[in-house]
Every structure is written in C-alpha cells, then in structure tokens.
Amino acid sequence: MMEQVFTNGRIVLRDRIVDGTVLVRDGAIEDISSGRSDADGAIDLDGDLLTPGFVELHTDNLEKHLMPRPSAHWPAVAALVAHDVQVAGAGITTVYDAMAIGDVRSNSVRKKRLQDMASSLHQAKEHDLLKADHLLHLRCEVSDPALPSLLEPLLESPELGLVSVMDHTPGQRQFVQLETYKRYYQEKFSMSDAEINAFIEQRQQDQVQHSEPNRRYVVKQAQARNVRLASHDDATHDHVAEAIEDEMTIAEFPTTVEAAKASHAGGLAVMMGGPNLVRGGSHSGNVSARDLAEEGVLDVISSDYAPSSLLHGAMLLVEELDAFDLPSAIATITVNPAEAAGLCDRGEIAIGKKADLVRIKPTPHHPLIKGVWRSGSRVA
Q: Which of 93, 160, 282, 296 measures 20 to 30 Å from 58, CA to CA?
C-alpha cells in the first residue's frame, strides 16, 4: 500500500478550514485530522493551504498550443502535452478540453484540426503522457450548417464528458450589439466594411436556417448518451427556459444578470470566466463576473483561455467580496464544477475522495502553487 501524510497545513474543506493532517492511501483520502503528524516521511506544508485539485470545465487553451503563431501548426500530441503541463502547473487536476464543433467560418483552423485534436487526446491518455485527467467538452456551434457531420464522428469518444450548445450569431447572446460583433470580427479576420457586412448577413441567414434543428440534434445525441449538457451565453429568460427544458445542468457565461439569476434559480450551475474576474470585466462588454458574485449567483469559475486565472479569480473573490470566504471561493473551482459535471469522486478533501490536492502559499501579489498531486502522485 502507498501511504502519504500531508501535515502542518491549513486544510480547505467544503465548508471550513482545519489546521491539521491528511492521510492518503493508494491514491484516495483515508483520514483527515486536526493537529500535526510525526509520521516518517510526512510532507510538512509549513502552514500553507492544502486544497482539492481544481476542476476546469471549459478551456480552449489547447488551441493556442496547436497554432502558437498564425499558420504555424504544431503536432497535436506535442501541443496537448505542452497544454497539459501548463494546466497541471496551474493546479488543474481535471480538465475538460473544449473543442469547437463548427465555427463562424467554413475554412477555420478549428474545423481543419478537430479530428486531430480529438485523436491526440486519446493517444496521449493511452500512452500515459498526461499529468491532469483530460476529458472532452464538445462546444457545438448550432448555426454552422456542417455541425452534424462534424459532431457525429466524436460522439462515441471514450473521453466525451460534456456538450455545450452555442450560437454566436450577430445580434444576440454574446453579441447583442451588432457594432460590437462587427468590431470584434472585422479586427480578428482583417475584413473590409463590405466583407464584414456580407459576413454578418450570411451568419444571420445560417442562424435562421440551421440553429433550431441543429440544437435539437445536439440535445438528442447528448441525452441518448447520458452526457451532461451546458447552455452558452444565455441572455434572456427565454434562453434559460429553453436550457431548463433541455435538462441542461450548467449555464456557461450568461451575458446578463437577468439570465444568470434565472439560471441559478432554475438549478443550473452558473459559470463565469476567471479572466473576467481578474481583468474586472468582460472582454466583449457583457456582464461582469464580480457583479454576479455580488448577486450570489456565481457558482463556478472557468479559466477559459488563461489557466492561471482559475486560482487567481477564486482568491480575488475572498479578497474583494464579503460574500465569499476561502472555502466558498475554493468551491467555485473544485467541488462545484465537479458536481455540475457529475464527477462524484473528486473536488473536495473528504474521506474516500480522490487524492487530487494542491499546495498553495498565499502572497501579497499572487497565490503561489507549490505542489500538485493527482490520485496521490505528484504531477507539478
């Protein structure tokens, strides 16, 4: 039997902090006690925090490693391993790699490398190349005419853990203001005024023709496989009502206080971005994550495109908002996302749970991660 003892630390439990010791045996937590242990080989935490490993439900960080420069394609497995090192170093022990199924452009790199990304995840896990536990999150762009043909080959992936329904049509959800959409994509794709206007018109036509049937297809396929569903960028009560009717469990990045409150009241876990918290607002001008936290309707933080923002965002909740103490803030990046995703074996320091653990030293500038363990094995 493999036994480890973590002692002389501040142990962050679901609802309180214990100054004491955690005993791990064969990758699971066997005991939690107050006081210090004198066991041989005990890991002395020297007063640092010991938290559960972080659970990340929605990150597209892998894409940055697949193409680190415009037109510079990187081998998929190598990109995944580099991404894995980054997320594990950020304290993330369970990560849902969000892969876009469909896109706003028919010739996007996301579409071209989709199968490559999915295959790399299976290959890397098969050869034990990864530090974190990686699962697949399929982000379905329902306005894309090609969505069903792109999604179908991935539905039987053994890594599939989450499906979300997106609609990035101009004039709604994330981009209610057409001018915001126009500025964002005109700069991103270097379009002229005539080109962006034609692009917007085509996207709106695609939405009218494809969004509803594609949404029904996605929901039906996920439900048939008992895969958890998430809504995305909900803005209105009608959006939330549709998500509830479709038995979704997660509301990703609602764009208004109205939608966030309705989602929370309807039993969906409201998820907002860590970058939103760290930067102090949404990059696209939508609702601030801090506003939702102050309203008591922020349940889950996602690092989105910046892995280090997960812990940083949680600690900002403690520092800047009276409504959050340390256990409740840490819950937004551990037990809350784990439960929303249906993972009952992790996300908290509790007897019988996986020994996914993070050692953190708070500092005046930024919380410092000093060690990460997954199932009792050190990975960072």
A: 296
